[in-house]
Design a protein that fits this description.
Shape of chain B: elongated
Strand content of chain B: under 5%
Oligomer: heterodimer
Radius of gyration of chain B: 24 Å
Number of strands of chain B: 0
Largest sheet of chain B: none
Order of helices and strands of chain A: HHHH
Structural class of chain B: mainly alpha
Shape of chain A: elongated
Number of helices of chain A: 4
Order of helices and strands of chain B: HH
Distance between the termini of chain A: 40 Å
Helix content of chain B: over 70%
Distance between the termini of chain B: 58 Å
Largest sheet of chain A: none
Largest interface: A-B, 22 and 25 residues
């Protein structure tokens, strides 16, 4: 099973569960049906955005920089660019 | 140092947004309309309007960026084809 198939099947599962709630196929108290169920997709979207922002911030906070490796890498990039330019490839 | 501060700010913002929005959308319907906690949150229609506006804004920005990149690369390609045709002729 590819990753795309996995993602699509999970998405279909979640949407069918939500649709069963939205179309009132499961009896729920009125307040939940009218005020909570329609809001759930937006809540999921905002929570996903907050989760991604959290992960990014955490990564930035705990990142260990390596200046020597950076210098070495920039040198290698320059050498590779000069080599490719000599062979006629446009690297700009 | 600066990027660590930015990372911490993002962490705090993400946590705050999640907690505020969760309480706003999932908790406030069960709170009486005369409870003082209601004063902390705007009317609930805004809990839908703000994410929708942000989505439309985000799609606009991404679409604009994509079109600018495509136009630039097409122009480069056309300029190259012109230069090659000039050389031939």
């Amino acid at each position: 099973m590819t990753r795309a198939q996995q993602t699509i099947s999970i998405a279909l599962l979640v949407s069918s569960l939500y649709l069963s709630l939205y179309l009132e196929l499961i009896p729920l108290p009125t307040l939940i049906q009218t005020a909570i169920v329609p809001v759930l997709p937006f809540w999921a979207l905002v929570s996903f955005g907050a989760w991604v922002l959290f992960r990014l911030g955490w990564g930035m906070l705990t990142f260990h920089d390596t200046p020597e490796a950076y210098k070495e890498l920039m040198e290698e990039v320059k050498i590779a660019q000069a080599d490719l330019r000599a062979k006629g490839v446009n690297v700009d | 140092m600066l990027d660590k501060l930015v990372g911490l700010a993002m962490l705090v913002a993400a946590t705050f947004v999640f907690l505020y929005y969760t309480i706003w959308t999932l908790l406030m319907p069960f709170v009486d309309s005369d409870h003082p906690l209601q004063n902390v949150f705007p009317p609930r229609e805004w809990a839908i309007r703000i994410p929708v506006v942000l989505i439309i804004l985000g799609a606009t920005v991404i679409g604009t960026f994509l079109s600018m990149v495509m136009i630039k690369s097409n122009r480069k390609k056309a300029a190259k084809a012109k230069a090659a045709a000039k050389k031939k002729a």
